[in-house]
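Workshop exercise sheet. Pairs work together: one partner reads the sequence aloud, the other fills in the structure field after running the prediction. Swap roles for the next sheet.
Pair: D.N. / O.F.
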Amino acid sequence: MMILNITILFYIIILWMGCHEAFYKFMKQKMNIKNIYITEGEPLEEELIEELVAKGPFRLERIISKGHTTPEGEWFDQDRDEWVVLLKGGAVLNIEGKDDTLAMKPGDCIHLPAHLRHRVEWTDPENETVWLALHY
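Structure field:
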């Protein structure tokens, strides 16, 4: 049993010697807690799109809208799939070729395949609408 404990300790020391610089650098980074619902600074004049994480093929954005819509005659036509969840507020989406619009409320999510043309027809003008969008 003691030999097993010494062996484990030996491996931990070897790993530490090889990784201590990366571990030290990681521990020095300032870890901040951020509230997904709170905007900082001035009131929103333009829609806020903030990249939260980007790694490999994945990009996660926080979007905050307040009465913002896609400009008339314009459509989103993206090269990548997008999964969107509405966390707060309300929105109405229009998918090209569909007769009905899609009203979204908190908790609703939708998958938008690449090149599915869509637009935001309405977001709540009185309250902030908070979305998370995962592009992949």
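Discussion prompt: Residues 57 and 121 are 28 Å apart (CA to CA). What would you look at next?
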